[in-house]
Structure formats: structure tokens, C-alpha cells
Design goal:
This is Oidioi.mRNA.OKI2018_I69.XSR.g15048.t1.cds. The chain has 3 helices and 7 strands, in the order H-E-H-E-E-E-E-H-E-E.
Length: about 150
Amino acid sequence: MKLSAFVFGCASAKVMFHTRNPGDCHDTCVLNRVCQFWTFDNRMDPETEQRRHECHHQNHNSYESIHDAEYMQCGSFSEPQGAVHSNCRFEFGANDFGRKFIQTHTPKQCMQIYELCRECSAYEWREYDTVTGEIDGHSVTEHVPGHCVLRI
């Protein structure tokens, strides 16, 4: 089974992490070697009445959703940082990698993602990690190269 299938099996609508702005979200996507698109959700949180500052990483399977996107910004890992698009409509729940699957080529890149994360308390880079999850009711173990583990 390929890692991409495992990623989808473990994906959830949980927030990857928070960044200060869409530029920081873009930069974390560039550093995450499995990120192809990013979305910065800065809508108002009805519970806290504060802006969300949520950064989500997506892959090529992201699809358009129908929701109020006034405070959504997005882009591609391949665009320069200034290329931020407004009113994005990516669905970031079903295909969100989650923090479990941030992969970088080097520990320094992992540290750079950590420094852009607003609420992270620590990070750890593992050259080769083993992650176990569940797909269709079956336990599956995958090996994740360059696993950047962020602690919140």
C-alpha cells in the first residue's frame, strides 16, 4: 500500500497548525515535500471570536468546496511567496495531511516549519519513521521518510 493511500485513511479535518499569515503558510508548504497546495483559513471562529490563522496543506486531490470563502487565501507550492490568491474554495477536510505527515528533506527544513508555526512547542526530525494507522478497519504500518514531527 502506498503512503498516499495511508495519508487519506488517516486524514481528518483537524487543523495542521496556525501561522501568522498566508505567506508563512505558503513557506511551510514549500518546505513540506508532500504539499502541493496550501490554504490559509482566516475566517472568524464563532467560539473565540478571533481569526483562525489555520494553515492547511493539500495534494493534487484537493477539490473545490462550497462555503463562504471571503477570508480564505491559497496558492501552490510552486508559486513565489507573493502569489497569494483570495476567495479560495479548496476543501481542506478530507484531504488534509495533518501534522502526522509533514515530510522534509533535512532537519533544518523541519526547524524552519517549526519556527513558522504559532503554537508549536517543539519539533523532532526523524530520517525514517514508522507510523501505524487504520484503513478500512485494518491496522496498517507505513514508513515515513524525513518525518517532521511538530509538538503542540
